Amino acid sequence: MVTRPFMPITHAPGVLIPEEPQQFDIAGDSPPIQLGDWTLTPLASYIVKARVLATKRYRSDPTSDIAPRDLLLGWGPMSDSAVVNTIAFRQNNRFGFWTFGSGCPLPESEISRHAANTHLIPANESVRRRIDSLKVGSLVRLRGQLVEARHADGGSPWKSSLSRTDCGDGACEIIYVESVLEL
After folding, report:
1. Longest CA–CA separation in the chain, Å
2. What integer is the mean pLDDT of 124-145?
3. How far apart are CA 125 and CA 97, in angstroms?
4. Angle at CA 61, nearest 5°, toward 30 and 58?
5. Between 21 and 165, where is the model more confident?
6. Element of type H or E holding 77
7. Residue 97, Cα to own-chain centre: how many angstroms?
8. Is 2 left (phi over 0), alpha (psi -120 to 50) or beta?
9. What is the value of pTM for the model shown?
10. Own/partner pairs, 105-114, CB within 8 angstroms, 24+ separation
11. For the segment 58-90, what is each residue's pLDDT rounded down to a tens digit?
12. Closest CA to 121 of 139, 141, 97, 145
């Protein structure tokens, strides 16, 4: 049998991930995390179980040294093949996009509420390899911290959204990923 490591994983219709992402306040002052020329300030603890809707590797943008991969994630109705198969997903320039026609059973507001483009900062090499192995259709649990990242050059901070209902510029989650589990 020939294996195809980059082929999407398919699922039968039905909600696969009913849980909403979990976000918790950080108790007290959490120390910053230093990654090379970057300082990460933890904003909240975060756990998300989701279906991978799209994945994109970045190699040459200003943040690719700490966040080499983005995942477009979906939960609730956005984990259901009956919905997902009616939408085309893509990622470009650190944004996640979707296109849907009249056959999509969800209004755009529900798609936005149950999907997020996430910038992943792996905590170590093992986590990086796990992230890199994920495919479209993977069911995954990511645990870590939503962060604000600042480069030593003093440029503008790169700050995670703390809401699941926002959209557009600044709405992406930036996760310092401490563990990855395929479900």
Report:
1. 54
2. 97
3. 29
4. 85
5. 21
6. none
7. 13
8. beta
9. 0.93
10. 105/77, 106/77, 106/78, 110/77, 111/78, 111/87, 112/165, 112/167, 113/164, 113/165, 114/74, 114/75, 114/76, 114/77, 114/78, 114/79
11. 999 889 999 999 999 999 999 999 999 999 999
12. 145
Express each pLDDT in 89-114 by its tens digit: 999 999 999 998 788 999 989 999 99
Which tokens sit at 93? 């320039």
Q: Which residue's entry shows tokens 């994983």?
A: 9
Beta bridge partners of 24: 45
Pair type for strands 173-182 and 115-122: parallel
Cα(142)–Cα(51) distance, integer angstroms: 11
Strand 173-182 to 158-159 pairing: unpaired
Of 23, 130, 21, 118, give the one whose Cα is nearest residue 76: 21
- Enumerate residues 6+ apart whose C-beta is below 8 A from 67: 58, 119, 120, 121, 149, 174
Q: Residue 13 carries which side chain, given as an amino acid letter?
A: P
Beta strands in the chain (DSSP E): 22-24, 33-35, 38-57, 69-74, 87-92, 95-100, 115-122, 139-151, 158-159, 173-182
Q: Kindly state the tokens that stand for 68.
A: 């080499």
SS3 label, residue 21: coil
Cα–Cα distances in Å, from 125 out to 54, 95, 119, 121, 177? 22, 25, 16, 11, 11
